[in-house]
Amino acid sequence: MGKLSNWIRARARFVAVLLVLALAAGGGYRVWAGRRARPAPVGGPGTLATAVATMGDIEVAVTGTAPLQPGGSQDVRSLVGGTVRRIHVSEGQTVAAGQVLAELENEGVMLALEQAQLAYEADLEQLAELRAQSGGDESATRSAQLAVATAKLNLERLEKQVDALVVKAPGPGEIAELPVRQGDQVSPGALLAAVLSGSPGQVSITVPEDRILDVKLGDEASVILAPLPEVHVVRLSLIDETVYGLRIGDRLRATVDGQWIPGTGGSVTAWGTVVSIQRSLPYFEIVCRLPGVPSGIPDGAKALYMEIYPTGEQSKGQTIIAGGELRVVVDEWGLDQAHLDGEGRRARISSIGAESQRDAQGRVVYPVTLELAEESATPIRSGMSAHAMVIPAKGDPLGALTTYQAPYHRITASDGGKVEAVYARAGQRVQSGDILMLVSNPTLEYQLEQARAELRLAENKLRDLSLTDRAAREIRSLEIRVRQAEMALETRYVDADALVVRANTSGRIVGWSQEISLGQTLGAGHVWGRIVNYEQMSVTISVDELQIVALRPGMQAQVSVDALPGRPFAARVRSIASEGQYQMGVSSFEVTLEVEGAPELRAQMTANARIQVAERQGVLLVPAEAVTIFGDGGAEVTVIDGRGVPAPRRVQIGLYNHAQVEVTGGLTEGEQVVLGVGRQNPGAPWMTHGVIREGMTK
Predict the structure, then answer these.
(1) How far apart are CA 231 and CA 292, in angstroms?
(2) CB 252 within 8 A of CB 245
(3) How many degrees, rounded to 5, is the angle at CA 607 between CA 604 and CA 613?
(4) Peptide bond before 179: cis, by omega within 30 degrees of 0?
(5) Phi and psi angles of residue 406, each rounded to the nearest 5 degrees, phi first
(6) Are 246 and 309 in contact, with CB atoms under 8 Å apart?
(7) What local confidence, expressed as pLDDT, does residue 47 receive?
(8) How many angstroms separate the first and last alpha carbons of the chain?
(9) Angstrom distance (rounded) from CA 231 to CA 632
(10) Is the residue at 179 inside a domain?
(11) pLDDT one-digit tens code per residue, 585-612
């Protein structure tokens, strides 16, 4: 089942193809094909292959394969430089947070500590002497006032930084991404959360320099979102003499290899048009669009014979004969007409780039942003494929493939720290000011207390300036010096303590510096290795845009690894990427699962993830190859009536996967349905013409 799901996901489209047999008296075959299907082998003359509608259970799941990753890791760094004196651990050893890993020596650090200690003690002694005496000079009021103002500004800045450790929602919306968990260490600028707002979103296109003056802010536009329709095309390279008189829009007729479509005699005839002519010395590159080719014919099939009918005067009535390979691409030409017919979502130009850039072909273009006029009623995510058309007041419309960008606020850490608590989850609706998480930063909090103390000292000094007693003013000044000496001493203690390298988290040591030896001198910031947490593993799989809407954070899943066959591990969906990756006309999204750790699991083991989307028990089921699913959501089966004659019948369906379809109406238990035409070779099972579908819910 995993291989089938991977095969279907690679095509990134929900597909349905079914051969409906003609009635015996009708003659021939009737074929309906969805957007994409796996071609079935063409059989020769045979008998009807049938199945009986039975009661049973059905399940729909999303699967994927990716390497296992550890739950988290932290680098072990030297905060100060020094000479290696002792090493207490080795590669692969399990350690606890705070455990001593190594010790360094640094005479400069220890001398600085001693000097700070002596300076602090000297200031304390001088302060004691002043308190026993009297006298002093008047201090400058202006200098004291400036010191108070500076201390207040510094305090306000630090208070804002500490307030930011309480992470709040910037406005109403839905949490699209929450990549951190309780206990994580975050660096300044790290992403803490992303909140989707309720605004409609936008797309971006590029406009060539010869058309940029035709577009204006506020010009109307249209956007069509995924899934985008596809069409077969043939690309030809023809010499100058061949294309004389050829024009865009000229008609053509193609004979296409039809071995995948039963009843065609091995070929299919389809009409099309020339949609693009570009000079590429010494040839002309011609693109021919063939909307009449059945979608069951796959990418890479052959156009065996093509007749193109030029309409220009230079053609002299001659016909161009060619052949080529079919490619399935996004139907941009059909989408242009769909925009003009009003099938797209309304949008307007919201910004036009002031500076140009060059595209992949080296042409000068300008970025143009389109903002959708209204929020989508159906679930959509950033990164989904889209097609946009701008309708300027002057000139022809401008269309281009692009990707949809959902509006969301990125909340980043202004300062580093440790995530102490998380109060939200991905997919949760929040209001402005809701608390999402708490981050602790002892250094920042210490700086805040220090700033408050400095402000108090500055205010006390300013207040003491009103005293006429010189001793009181000097005592206050010296008290400030004592406090500064005390803070300098505390800093030196921190440096001295950093000569002992400790584990910053619990876990297993990996990548330990094997080349480090006793007596070696290291600089500040040296990385000894990493401490990796294997108690919680994760795996990130890629899910296509049609399946992603069925997944939610928190869904239960199962993971198996190739190295431990028959041993399933419990998992759950931790996060779903808010932005997809667009490639070959399809967008896919990363889904991360948390996996319960076990001693046997190792990082980079191949993991097979399976997320159950839906299941039903005791329902009426038929094989998938017996059902035709139409584009409007309707479905049809061919039933053997009481006279033994096949007859088409519309039915209602529920869940379906690659093997079975749930029938909710139009069919009863025990009725026979046609699977296709098959023949039985000696020793071989029945072979039928059928279809494999992606499992989805209706």
Answers:
(1) 9
(2) no
(3) 145
(4) no
(5) -75, 140
(6) no
(7) 72
(8) 20
(9) 19
(10) yes
(11) 788 999 999 998 777 888 889 999 999 8
Positions in the chain whose pLDDT score sits under 50: 1-45, 134-139, 468, 678-698
pLDDT at 198: 65
CA 40 to chain centroid, in Å, comes to 34
Cα–Cα distance measured from residue 620 to residue 670, given in angstroms and rounded to the nearest whole number? 10
H or E element that contains 103: strand 100-105
Say if CB 649 and CB 599 are below 8 A apart.
no
- CA dist 245 → 252, 278, 288, 320 (Å): 14, 14, 16, 10
Among 289, 311, 330, residue at a domain's last position: 330
Are residues 672 and 566 part of one domain?
yes
Q: Is 485 helix (H, G, I), strand (E, B) or coil?
A: helix
| Cα dihedral 112→114→119→123 (10° resolution) | 150
pLDDT tens digit sequence for 266-296: 899 999 999 999 887 788 999 999 999 998 8
Strands 166-168, 364-372: parallel, antiparallel or unpaired by DSSP? unpaired
Strand 635-640 relative to strand 606-623, pairing: unpaired
**Where residue 372 sits, what CATH number does that domain have?**
2.40.30
The CA angle 593-596-602, to the nearest 5 degrees, is: 90
Helix (H, G, I), strand (E, B) or coil at 655: strand
Position of tokens 């220009």?
A: 312
CA angle (545, 654, 31) in 5-degree steps = 80
CATH assignment of the domain containing 425? 2.40.50.100
Tokens read off for 293: 């080719």
Residue-range definition of the domain harbouring residue 288:
230-330
What are the Cα distances from residue 375, in Å, to 199, 217, 345?
Answer: 6, 20, 10
Residue 138: exposure state from Cβ atoms within 10 A (0-12, 13-18, ≥19): exposed
Mean per-residue pLDDT over the chain, rounded: 82
Residue-wise pLDDT for 186-233, tens only, equals 888 889 998 887 668 889 999 999 999 999 999 999 999 888 999 999
